[in-house]
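Lab notebook: predicted structure, single chain.

Context: the supervisor wants predicted structures on file for every construct in the current expression panel, including those that have not yet been purified. This is the next one on the list. No modifications to the sequence; it matches the entry in the shared construct table.
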Amino acid sequence: MVRASQATTFSASAYFDDRGPHGTAQPITERVHPHSRPIVSYFFPKGVGEFHYGERHPMKPHRLTLTNALVMGYGLDKQIHHIYNPRPATQVELEMYHDHDYVEFLSRVTPNNQNEMRHLIDTFNCVEDCPIFAEMYDFCRMYAGASLAGARKLCSGTCDTAINWSGGLHHAKRGEASGFCYVNDIVLAILELLRYHPRVLYIDIDIHHGDGVELAFYHSNRVMTVSFHKYTGEFFPGTGKVDDNGANLGKHFCLNVPLQDGIDDEMYLTVFKTVIEDTVTAFRPTAIVLQCGADSLGCDRLGAFNLSIAAHGECVNFVRKFNVPLLVLGGGGYTIKNVSRCWTYETAVLVGAEIPDELPATVYDPFFRDSQWKLHPPLTGRVENQNTPASLQKITISIRNKLRYLQGAPSVAMQEIPPDLEGLLADEDKNQEERDEERGTGFAGESRSDRCISRHEYFEGDNDVDQDDCTPLSGPKRHSISSSARKPRTKRTRGRGRGRASGGNGREDGEEVDEPGGASSTKPGKTRGRIRSRAKPRGRIAERDKDVEDMDAEVGGEPESGFEPATPVDVDIDV
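Prediction complete. Output recorded below exactly as produced.
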């Protein structure tokens, strides 16, 4: 028997709402042509929207499932070049920024053992805003892995824009959770981008200050952080004053635009475009990371601005037009029906497609019934605007004055390259043979460091250091060097003695010998001498052979068979 209150069950209701006079958007069927527009990659970890912070917690990962359903319902998947289900980040990848003890804690804590780990929960700030929920570590690995994958695609040049709406959790610190954020995927992605890009610009349009990213790069001049947020001194996280500029090398590379409640579309877009255009001109980034927190929209559960979805998307479109490699991430946003609409619209902006105001038919139609299934519901005018043109102009002038200190984009020639997040191989000292193998295995292990003597070289003994790069004489045959001519000579060589014809007597190098009479006293003789240069094999230090042989010293005779007359040359001889 069915009770009256259960007469209409979920299975008995219509699969889609009857929209009546309200239309339904038809999905795009035309596929994007390769190279017809900038390449866009879309990253959505399967199952990332199935996690749950808690019944009363404002953060709802289910908003990611709604966003993906609208993106596919509009047919935007046909306009996206690549759609990826990225792998989760590994613990080693997370520890490229976060402390080992903190990551180890995230991997072990569960709702079942949290009482036994209470002291660590307090230490790592996993209380109230950052509760312990089921499979929390898997959730962190998923959204962090998607941001890392997007950064790698940008570094490799396989895409121009990478989208990961599950990322953008900008409050997490190196060793603690903060503001619903456990792992700071933005910092990890920027570190990966810095491996290839010399300068990265980070832009944050979340209503909360991006304190975690700012803190990570507070002392760096390779990353400029620009945050547009609400600041009263008490609103979370309580940081982001206009005077916070960075420190040391990062001085003036940290820009904050503090705003008050109720800012509208016109004011926000004016200050946003002015600040970002001046920043891009001065800093000249080679990559941009844009955090698109949707809690800056009007009617947000935790927000207090009056921005519309169209104005929020115009900020994304303005950054896109710089034609710089762009990583687009999610962030805050706690009215999930508005968050999903906003990120769907911005996906269409990034792919360059126009979508109608009517929402497509999805299984989540009841979420949008109160707004009559519109993409752009009225969200503005709910909060009084406490910003004035004078206050915004003052902030803009202050930002411009800070940018004057940059004096051009910083050089990165001597900057340390961040660790490899993809290879995950520890740096180690390598010998010459291993380095040769990296360059190519063709000659690996075949090089020799023997000290050798080239022809006509002057060798000064074991202390001679200019012979290290010489190539040893190859081949089994030893070549001889002629030290005297076959014709009369009166020219003195560089040796220490004058060479004269000899009747076959052996003598030391450079020694002067006067022959007693004979043909040499009456007739100039043709002499031929050879000095043998030997390179000691098998890695031993080669030395000059000090024995000089007089070979076939004959007067007026014919050249020995197999030898051509030699030209007089200078020979350096050690005695």
